[in-house]
Amino acid sequence: MIAATIPLSEIDREVWDAIPARPRTPMRQYIWAAAYQETLANGEVRTFVIGPQSKPLAVAPFAQPANGPRRQVLLGAEDIWESVEVAAQDEQTLRDLAETIAISGLPLRFGHHPIDTPFHEYLVQAYRGKGWVVMARQPMGAMPKIDLDHSWTEPENHFSNRRRSDFRRMARKAQASGDVTFEIVEPSPEELEALMDEAFDIEARSWKGRSGTAIKQDQRTEAFYRAYARSAMEAGILRLCFMRIDGVAAAMQFAVECENRFWLIKVGYDEAYKHVSPGNLLMRETIKYAAESGLEGYEFLGKEAEWTKLWASHARPIATIRTYPYNLQGVSAFLSDAIGLAAKRIAARLRK
């Protein structure tokens, strides 16, 4: 086994993207890591690599978030809560990766990591005698998806009579409000910034804006998604999708199309049009598009939620995973996290 921790800048993009690691998601591509380093990392992204640097077999990129704990976190797994996980060619390589992480001596955070692979088991085994692995299973799953076939060219056929009736009613309400159109755009460089402005404005006009979690409400987060969008556009995988009523955007999707799948990065809708459920109407159109395009899957990413359950019945189980080595750094990180958790519990009780 050849194992190392390598700065992102020392790994060639073509080499990174050629790693025969599973799963292959947009978050595993080089452009995701590069955009993160440019905008959200405090310092350089460093990657645990298994295999020769010229032809690695597994990667696990970590960075200290600029806004977040002074700790190495799996890239984007906590500050932007995207669907990130370690990736390896096979189970033996995954075991080697866990062992390499365990001997690093670093306290690490993995966010909400999928536990339907053996990685978490290998991690616990690798840390025996070296540190603690703290793992808390979450009640919801993550990365819901639809495995597409031709039947999804008519998405309503997968629903009950009642839900089909709901969709027809939503469509009638929308049409009564004005001329309804749908767009799935592969933007040009000249179009990109204006379309991204429009998409982020729509998201901010939803509950996300009221809760302070909209992309445009955090300068670094917005910079990340714009940097990633530019790279995804250059790679030909970016898709910006809109539902419009009389030309005014009521809902948006920020997505990419790669690995023969359609991946939802961000969704949003304008609450002024909430009565016509524009997000669901746009979802129906993009699922239909993906099926008509012959794609294998429609990936929702993120955490499972009530709205994703309307479409996808399959989600992956997840757990919050953190590691603490038996050293000063590990003990300090453990105490810091314990104090933070206690403070949150006290604050929650005081709010009751």
Instruction: Indicate the low-confidence ranges by residue numbers.
Output: none
**Radius of gyration, rounded?**
21 Å
Please state roughly what percent of the residues sit in beta strands, choosing from under 5%, 5-15%, 15-25%, 25-35%, 35-45% or over 45%: 25-35%
**Head-to-tail CA distance between termini:** 53 Å
Per DSSP, the total helix count is: 11
Mean pLDDT: 90
CATH architecture of the largest domain: 3-Layer(aba) Sandwich
CATH topology of the largest domain: Aminopeptidase
Helix content: 25-40%
Query: Which structural class do you get from the secondary structure elements?
Result: alpha+beta
Task: Quickly count the domains.
Answer: 2
Supply the CATH class of the largest domain: Alpha Beta
Number of strands: 13
The backbone outline, from C-alpha atoms, is globular
Largest sheet: 13 strands, mixed
Order of helices and strands: EHHEEEEHEHEHEHHHEEEHEHEH
Can you describe this structure?
- The structure is a single chain.
- The chain has helices spanning 13-17, 30-39, 91-102, 119-126, 161-177, 189-204, 207-211, 219-234, 278-292, 306-309, 328-351; strands at 3-7, 46-50, 58-63, 72-74, 87-88, 108-114, 131-147, 180-185, 238-245, 248-258, 261-269, 297-299, 314-325.
- Strands 1, 2, 3, 4, 5, 6, 7, 8, 9, 10, 11, 12 and 13 form a 13-stranded mixed β-sheet that branches.
- The longest helix has 24 residues, at 328-351.
- It is built from eleven helices and 13 strands.
- It starts with a strand and ends with a helix.
- It has 352 residues and is of the alpha+beta class.
- β2 and β3 form a beta hairpin.
- α3 (91-102) runs parallel beside α4.
- The chain folds into two domains: 3-139 and 317-351, Aminopeptidase (3-Layer(aba) Sandwich), CATH 3.40.630; 149-295, Aminopeptidase (3-Layer(aba) Sandwich), CATH 3.40.630.
- The model has no long low-confidence stretch (mean pLDDT 90).
